[in-house]
Amino acid sequence: MHHDIRTGDRGHIKCHKNTACISAQELKTAVEKIYTIFDERTLKIIPSYVRKLVDSVIRIKGNFAPRYLEDSLLVRQAFELVAKNSYGDLFGKVVDRMDRHVKWEEYVGSVKDTFSEMTNNCLYYGVSEEKGVVLNGPPGSGKTFLVRTWLSENNDIHDISASPSSLQDSVNPIDGAVENLEKVYDIAKMIAPTMVFFDEGDALAPKRSPSGGSPTDKLTNKFLNLIDGEIPLNRVFTVLTTNRLDILDPALIRSKRLKVMEISGHLRKRDISGIIEQSLKGVPLAAGLDVDTILTASQGICNTPADYAAFVEKARSLRSTEYEVLLRLRSLSEVSRNDLVNFIKFNYKTLIGILDAVKAPQKIRVQVKSDPGGFLNQYDKIIALLAYIKDVEEYPLMPSHLHSARQEISQSPVKKGNVQLDEFLEAELSQEPQVGFIIGVGANDVAGMLLPIATSLTYNIGPEKVIVTGAVSSSAPGAAELDMAVKMTQQSAQEALTMVKNYLQDLDPKVSMSRLLGDYLDHYTIHHQLLSASYTVGGPSAGYALALNTLSSLLSIPVYNDFGITGAPWTKGVKKGEVGGSVIIGGHKKKAQKVLLHLRRMYMPLQNYKDLELEFLENYWSQNKDILGVTHFGDLVPEVVYFGEDYEEILLELIDTRIRYKLNKYRGNKPPEEIKAGILKKKDVLKTRVEKEILSRLAALRRYLRTPTHDPHISLEEIFRKRKSKMKSLVRPLRAYIQKRRGKRANPSN
Fold first, then answer.
1. Residue 704 lies inside a defined structural domain of this protein
2. Each residue of 560-610: pLDDT tens digit?
């Protein structure tokens, strides 16, 4: 690194013609500029860094002059050499390793614009408040893909890609990782502007132990110090990905540190269509096959952007393989029988796929599928059948490829159980309004899950007045977590009964609903059966569904069958008459998407509804479907029960009118005020009808319980049927009397 540069003015005895010299003033200027350069990069001034920086400038330019330090591109190039020289092995492992062979347009979703704004602020505009972001979302939601697409269009930005495992030292894992983490950020500062990307960020900065004694606390502390320590970062943007935000140290995402951005992977229909179109580029489609057909074929097995892309890629690869096998099959007409047998034997599945794709005659397919040897007997016919395919364009993507792709993906160990469960639950959706049957919905990290709930009154089978059971057992390893979920669901069911009691009490303040329901349930148990493989999708978020089923079963009121619901209600309300106010819950987007695949309406707590983007809602309004926020139980009930065809007619008019009103308003077409007034009037008509009907049923129940000689074996339907008959028997003579009086007034001579 010795370049024999001496200090002295030109003409000085030290500065002969074969020696490079720098004056004292130039040296002072160079020192000041080096201080500025290190300060701008928030890089510690270490003698070795300074020596290597000057050496790198000389290597690039052939000599040294202070003015060279004013060239930002030259300084950056020189610092790249410093970083390589100082941290050769680590530099090679982590710098510019991200795959950038994608385009910005390939990422579908408006979240990318927010991410780009934050990144630009830090790396291009020097906004110090933008230190980085935590991308939180389930596997396959597109977190890493988002970063790759941004980098692909910003080639002047270096990337550093590291994982906690790549930072570890085999001899000293924790201390080695701490040391390497500091080196990573020194490299990032040297070659800035830089994006530092950590996959599985929760392992890099896990939540620190309360006692501070965990070995990993050192790594978290170092990371916090680097992000927001005494020496701030400049033009270094940090990106962490995680699907476990709960185990990330909360100090990392406090104000002025890293922001959290949810990458849920939840897609609107047009987003999914965009992903499919991108994945289909250059692939011919069979007649009748389009993006919508492919989207339909992927439903149930795809939840995230990666899932949809993988589905199309699987169908494409099946087509590509079949075409290659088809060409090879044609070339075997002159080979020995033994070679042909071996080819058929080892490509049998693909050959069957070809026959399915070209829709070979059923007779041929049956013979070949039942006996692989039959392929030899049908060889000439099959070759003739495929003769029209001259090139790859004449072998397009066909429905059979989608069917096979769906089968293969759904049979993978990761998907198989969920696909089978979804198919079972979807088959159990009610075909008509029923008493005590409702569709709740839960969610896991990736997707929503339908939760049909069947509720019945059964004879006392124990001291508990409310019991909850699951129709399908679970073999989940987390027994303690499962047990907690069971208890929470049981608790929600008990709270549902209390809330229904309070709702009925508000409707009829003169009657003690506690006593009435207590007497009524003296010999009964309310049994809720959850048709789910796990109670973990129940819990508090099943509260509204359990409450509606409780009301339905107690008073024999059918529940409508076109909606799903999630949310946990209060047993009271913020105002009198508003019992069952909604409580915010999680996973509402995933739940809405799952429900609206199969049903028309989705209800959720009002605060969750307000959290939804207008574009997300408009996607469903344009399909004549709706998502609604629940304010309180009394407002919900009239929209989800069934009291005959005339009631249904008003309800359907309300649903249709409300969707059209929202859609027009979203599109900037101000709807007439009378439409809004009509919506409110319909809601009021339904509410009045429901409350009268409920009060009538409560009165009938009360009369039955107060009758000393009541039949203990009579059904609820019969109790309420007799109520109607009795009312009619009272109404008829009253009506006849009124008509008679009117007749006398009209004819006083009589």
1. no
2. 989 999 988 888 877 777 888 877 777 888 888 888 888 899 999 999 999
Check residue 282 and give left, alpha or beta (phi > 0: left; psi -120 to 50: alpha). Answer: left
Q: H or E element: which one contains 318? A: helix 305-330
Amino acid at 335: V
Burial class (CB in 10 A: 0-12, 13-18, 19+), 515: exposed
DSSP state of 210: T
Q: What pLDDT is stored for residue 230 in this prediction?
A: 67
Mean pLDDT of 166-175: 76
Is the Cα dihedral 574, 575, 580, 584 positive or negative? negative
Of the residues 644, 670, 704, the one at which a domain ends: 644
CATH number of the domain where residue 174 is located: 3.40.50.300
Between residues 321 and 427, which one has the greater pLDDT? Answer: 321
Cβ neighbours for 735, distance < 8 A, ≥ 6 positions apart: none
| Percent of the chain clearing pLDDT 90 (strictly above) | 31
Q: Kindly report whether the global pTM for this prediction surpasses the value 0.85.
A: no
- Helix axes 399-410 and 413-427, enclosed angle (nearest 10): 110
Read off the tokens for 455: 């509720």
110-130: burial string, b at 16+ Cβ within 10 Å, e else: ebbeebbebbeebbeeeeeeb
- Assigned domain for 514 exists: yes
